[in-house]
Design brief:
By secondary structure, this protein is mainly α. It is built from 14 helices and no strands. Helix 2 runs antiparallel to helix 4 and helix 9 (124-150) runs antiparallel to helix 13 (198-206).
């Protein structure tokens, strides 16, 4: 809990945290309105959820790049582990603190859901499933970023590598990649790639279907990356 409080409040001790939240909110709401939120005359948040994974590709690494890189750069990581704190506790506390900050960013976008409820009669179950999918996607991206941050002292390097990995993980199995490959790849290969695609799993949940395969994908990937993070810190 002390590490969680330190990390979570650290986002608000400088203007950077407020700037990140403001930019994220403006980007998400702006893209939703630009993609025809009002002109569609539909009581749903498809225009919000459609571009959300692509925004998270940049937003999550911006939040998580400092988790371990800053500790290693300043040398405070040695001080941290002289305290009676296990690497597991430190990894989980830092991860949950960053995830709580990301949760605040997602909550800011709920203003569009309230607007939808005021103007129409949306299916709140679908909206809830979409936000669950967004939080699970964010947690998986954050666990990847945490590993990258633990491998370097430079926050910029951690950010760039995290963005590249998250972008690749989103493109794998996407409809765009399937159209690009065309008939050159077997159907079985494309189906397998879809099982590894963030975009496909998030699209399923944003339609209101909390699929077991999607939940398993996000949970297993997040736990695996946190395990790798612990190994890197211990060594």
């Amino acid at each position: 809990m002390p590490i969680f409080k330190k990390e979570f409040l650290g986002y608000f001790r400088s203007p950077v945290g407020y700037v990140i939240l403001a930019v994220f909110h403006v980007m998400v709401i702006g893209l939703a309105l630009y993609s025809g939120y009002y002109s569609r005359n539909e009581a749903n948040l498809n225009s919000l959820f459609r571009p959300l994974p692509w925004i998270l590709i940049v937003f999550i690494p911006a939040v998580g790049m400092r988790l371990w890189a800053e500790e290693k750069r300043s040398g405070s990581i040695e001080l941290l582990f002289t305290l009676p704190i296990s690497p597991r506790s430190a990894v989980v506390a830092k991860f949950l603190a960053a995830l709580a900050f990301i949760g605040i960013g997602l909550c800011l976008t709920f203003s569009l859901a309230l607007t939808t409820g005021y103007l129409g009669d949306p299916d709140w179950g679908v909206i809830f499933a979409g936000y669950v999918g967004a939080l699970l996607t964010a947690s998986a991206f954050l666990s990847i970023t945490a590993v990258c941050s633990a491998l370097t002292k430079n926050q910029v390097i951690a950010f760039v590598i995290s963005v590249m990995i998250c972008l690749f993980a989103t493109l794998v199995g996407s409809d765009w990649l399937a159209q690009f490959l065309g008939n050159s790849a077997p159907t079985a290969v494309l189906d397998f790639l879809r099982l590894l695609s963030f975009e496909q799993h998030f699209a399923t949940m944003s339609k209101g279907l909390i699929d077991i395969s999607a939940l398993s994908f996000y949970i297993v990937l997040t736990l695996a990356c946190l395990g790798i993070n612990m190994i890197v810190i211990e060594r």
